[in-house]
Amino acid sequence: MNSAEIRQKFLDFFAQRQHQIVPSAPLVVKDDPTLMFINSGMAPFKDYFLGNKPAPSKRIADTQKCLRVSGKHNDLEEVGYDTYHHTMFEMLGNWSFGDYFKKEALAWSWELLTEVYQLPKDRLYVSVFQGDDSENLPMDQEAFDIWKSMIAEDRILMGNKKDNFWEMGDTGPCGPCSEIHVDLRTDEERAQVDGKTLVNADHPQVVEIWNNVFMEFNRLADGSLVKLPAQHVDTGMGFERLCMAIQGKRSNYDTDVFQPLIQFIAKEAGVVYGENEQVDIAIRVMADHIRAIAFAISDGQLPSNNKAGYVIRRILRRAVRYSFTFLDFKKPFLYKLAAVLADQMENVFPELKAQLSFVQRVIEEEENAFLRTLENGLKRLDALEAKFKENNNTIDGKTAFELYDTFGFPLDLTALIAREKGLKVDEAGFGVEMEQQKNRSRNASAQEQSDWVIIQPDVETEFLGYEHDVADSHIVRYRQVKTKSKSEYHIVLDRTPFYAESGGQVGDTGYLISNAEQIEVLDTKKENDLILHITSKLPQNIEATFRSEVDFERRNLIRKNHSATHLLHAALRKVLGEHVQQKGSLVNEKVLRFDFSHFAKVTDEQLREVENIVNQRVRQAIPLEEQRNIPIAEAKEMGAMALFGEKYGEFVRVIAFDRDHSVELCGGIHVHNTGEIGYFKILSESSVAAGVRRIEATTAASAEEYMQQQLNELNAVREVLGTHSNISGAVQKLQEDNKALQKQLEQFELKQLTTLKESLVQKAQSIDGVNFVAEKVDVSTADYLKKLAFDMRQAVDNLVLVLAAEIDGKPQIAVMLSDNLVSDRKLNASQMVRELAKEIKGGGGGQPFYATAGGKDTSGLTAVPAKAAELVKTLINA
Ligand code: ATP
Ligand code: MG
């Protein structure tokens, strides 16, 4: 059975059992501060478990892209070394939201594995939760009894809290679970060691494949458990591990999920997979990491310097390090792998293929940058080698940490390079530095968040913001969040006109007003599906009725900018082409920012054209056509483009300004008619990342203000020029005149210099067979001083020349000697100029025949010629 068939059979099995099959959510999590990436099949459904929102269907199944590289579930360091943990993997899952429970879930999993997939029963083990006294949790007798009716009792193992009580994160839904493990060893191996003893013992051929979690609790911030409003089933089966079991392989990497990637890497590297453990690890790291990198980017997370972007950057760098060190790839290569992956995954996750050239460009650019960094790091190590040798042949902890921190060299890489150079690394010292940095960032980001205080349970907020700016509301829950620098409250209302930051549009601000008081709303944010009103204090009377009032003026500016962003998007696609896709946006009351995929600078001409199209649409006063809750298929038929990395429900909101022009899926606030935008003006165009351009623009009064400013400046120029027509002609003429004058001036100065030279030649004085000239001269630049010195050298033999001059208000001295005086009489211009520079409180140097000095004291210049004469006399006599 190939992997595509295995995946399909899973989905079909649960579809036949009334499960709705849904597509995978994007990997990147947007509205949840506790999670950066989806790390399990249940994460996109968190709200349903918590009862924040009803599930669209009581039974759901899917394959979900998961990433375990940060937070509670982080497998990154295992990846490549073992054969069954990945950064990005697919989790097959079936869910019951308050519907079926343990009996059905366990029976179905058994049926699917043993009958549909035909896994031999005598290779399977199951585990149930043994209970935990410290939390007062009983053993899962029910699961045990269900299993006993299907499988021999000695194959049912008791598991502790670590293995059999599943938690998504430090807080959130959780519950006891029952795992299924498979023993893939050979018959001989199995005869020697009982498989039972290898379950949960990190054995590469005795691995967990499926976990059935029975969600019953919510873990609160204070660590306590409370019962969830309903009981749910959450199951997760590792797709790649399942393929290994069904295809009878000993490693996930030997299945058809990874082989195309592995073969491609091996061929390009000129090696054979399976011959050398270190090389194999590197190949596995690359085959694994490209999946995490490519899918994260196609889901909208570009590598960057902070947060989720930094996690992706680190994964990419880990892959480059291994390929650089063990496979000798010194040029970008990973980006090529993305194409192999895209072909392979086209039918399951088409988003990668659809954006392949963009994704490749981003990866290649990152690889290039990191390869340069690696090289610089290696140079740094080379440069410090002598120092390490003196330091008892050891790279000190501080340097090792600097390499890690600024050059991305992890300790193992530094140690490897050190070994090649016959050096050691002070690993303890490195650990100390690392710990110190961790403490610094822990202190900076420490935040304390209280649990929700529920005023009214089970209330789903009604959002009124599309029609209203004001509403009567009640608080349904609140909590306090403290960081080192501030303390704030998150307030959730039963009804609200406040728009929470999302889709690039900033959150609303305003007031919650009761009879007794007025609380300022500083911002509005989303957390999953909760709308959080952020305030700096709590109302005295939590249960009062509040008039919630959005800052209307500000919102009006925001909505103009948001609608203009849609018009801009449409115009860009018209002018630049259909490859233009939104890659990010920011809309606030001042500007709009739009990032989009495009591979070249947008020319001024194209920008004008875009601007003109948008302003034309503004003048046409096109009415807003808003459709809420239409099926996504219908929206796509209207021409609305779904953005990659955006999570859409079955029903969506469509915003159109003329269906033939601009149709978008959007949850934001818009003008009723494009005429309200007034005027649209592009402020700048720039590059943000490989293949991504950014346009900043503004509308209405601030666009007007901007134009006003530009005109004012122009008028000021007109005023100065004293002309109102052909300004650029006038400026050009000025520039030309200026150039001509400059030339004249130069010629004049050169002529003067010649005259000066001639007079100096006349002044030459003979001291013991040497032609000595020392003068304070009048020249305007250091270049002229130098020219004068060199001209003199041409004109006079046996020359000792000392020139002193004030240039731009500062004293300068130049000493020039004929070559024969340097070689035969052992004079040295550098030494002489240093001695003379004392007169001007300065210093200098140069070559033996020519040297210069600068100083601080111009008044000393006049003394220089006499001092020079003395100096020469002593030097020559000596
Ligand atoms: P393990 O103990 O092997 O790390 P887990 O207990 O972390 O597994 P769960 O969180 O229960 O796993 O996830 C459900 C299933 O997802 C597992 O049974 C396994 O098949 C799969 N899985 C978990 N982590 C990974 C990973 N990093 N790579 C591939 N598959 C995984
Ligand atoms: Mg794990």
UniProtKB/TrEMBL annotation:
UniProt keyword terms in alphabetical order: Aminoacyl-tRNA synthetase, ATP-binding, Coiled coil, Cytoplasm, Ligase, Metal-binding, Nucleotide-binding, Protein biosynthesis, RNA-binding, tRNA-binding, Zinc
Gene, per the UniProt record: alaS
Family the UniProt entry places it in: Belongs to the class-II aminoacyl-tRNA synthetase family.
Domain Alanyl-transfer RNA synthetases family profile: from-to ranges: 1-709
Location in the cell: Cytoplasm
Gene Ontology terms: cellular component: cytoplasm
Enzyme class: ligase
Main location: cytoplasm
Name recorded for this polypeptide: Alanine--tRNA ligase
Domain of life: Bacteria
Cofactor mode of binding and number, as noted: Binds 1 zinc ion per subunit.
Reactions mediated catalytically: tRNA(Ala) + L-alanine + ATP = L-alanyl-tRNA(Ala) + AMP + diphosphate
Coiled coil: 724-751
Sequence positions that bind Zn(2+): H562, H566, C666, H670
Cofactor: Zn(2+)
CDD domains: AlaRS_core
Xref: PANTHER family: ALANINE--TRNA LIGASE, CYTOPLASMIC, ALANYL-TRNA SYNTHETASE
GO MF: alanine-tRNA ligase activity; aminoacyl-tRNA deacylase activity; ATP binding; tRNA binding; zinc ion binding
Function statement: Catalyzes the attachment of alanine to tRNA(Ala) in a two-step reaction: alanine is first activated by ATP to form Ala-AMP and then transferred to the acceptor end of tRNA(Ala). Also edits incorrectly charged Ser-tRNA(Ala) and Gly-tRNA(Ala) via its editing domain.
